Amino acid sequence: MENATLTVLETPLSNTSVSNEFWTHCLGQWLPPNHILFQIANAFLFLSYLAPVGIYGLLYLRTCLMIGSMFFALWGWIVLCALDTFIWNAVFTLINLIHVVILLYMLRPVKLSKELEEVYQDLFKPLQVSRHQFRKAISCMREIKCLKPREPYCVENVTKVDRLSLVLTGRQNGHALHIVDSKQFLDSPEWFGVCTNDAYQVSITALEACRVLIWHRDKLKLSICDDVFLQAVFDNILGKDVVKKLLLVSESSCNGVGFYVCDDVVAETTKLLSKNKQGQTGLGVLLTRQVKNRGDTNVWNLAKKAQSEQDPETSV
Asked: Where exactly are the transmembrane stretches of this chain (predicted)?
């Protein structure tokens, strides 16, 4: 008897029948809803997807992920009794907990002393510098130095320019050039293009009891070099300080000698003193001292020009 071979050919299902099967194969076979721990875990995952942009949004995201993973771990331990589910979610919880702790440490409140708080409020906060950024700058502080009346801060051609100093209280006299009041810098011109091995071109002496905030200049520059915004803020503050020192000319300048600056914008205690024996205004003396012995030939002399050299068409 010959063996008969039976071939069964399957008829391919149409796309319509496949689609119907996809949507209907679970009808009447759905499992009951999962445990409440599972629902809570997924609710926190959902909330994590709504995290906003920024460091606070990142803290919110990590917190939601940590709580969601924690509930998944409890669900795997209590309900499923699945060790792998519990271990994986416990690890996820620990990772996100570490991130939350680090973010909270970064966002902790920055407390400043009374003097530093005044510096921040007067100089840095108006420029939108955060307290954390200001703390970064303060970390480069060398000391707060107390000076007695007539005590020198620096000596001309002797003291090295390795610091940046801000007067907190009191007044300093810049060797018959000008008086520096509180919340003003003593060595703002040296911030721009002056080497640490250079010496001061002026002598600065305390007129009264002073407190001076002193930064390590090179350490401060290195610390803020990776923060473009903070670097621009220091350049702005110190640049304005230099301009004020140059514009606050003597009373003789206001009467027609050198550059004219109105009395209503000149503080009485910060005017540059009168011209020296060579006939230069305080402005000219300041610039001369800043470029002394540097060999710079392309320097503008802002002192009073001789009357015969003035251009009548451009003179003001």
From this structure: 36-56, 63-80, 86-107
Instruction: Give the 3-state secondary structure of residue 255.
Output: coil
N-terminal to C-terminal alpha carbon distance within the chain:
129
**Mind listing the pLDDT tens digit of every residue in the chain (316 residues)?**
445 554 544 445 555 555 666 666 677 777 888 899 999 999 999 999 999 999 999 999 999 999 999 999 999 999 999 999 999 999 999 999 999 999 999 888 888 889 999 999 999 999 999 998 999 999 999 899 998 988 888 888 888 888 899 999 887 766 555 678 888 898 888 888 777 778 888 888 888 888 999 999 889 999 998 899 999 999 999 999 888 877 764 443 554 444 333 344 334 333 333 334 444 444 444 445 544 544 443 333 333 333 334 444 333 3
Contact present, 229 and 162 (Cβ < 8 Å): no
Beta strands in 71-217 (DSSP E): 141-147, 152-154, 163-169, 172-173, 179-180, 204-206, 210-216
What is the C-alpha radius of gyration for the chain, rounded to an integer number of angstroms? 36
Whole-model pTM: value is 0.59
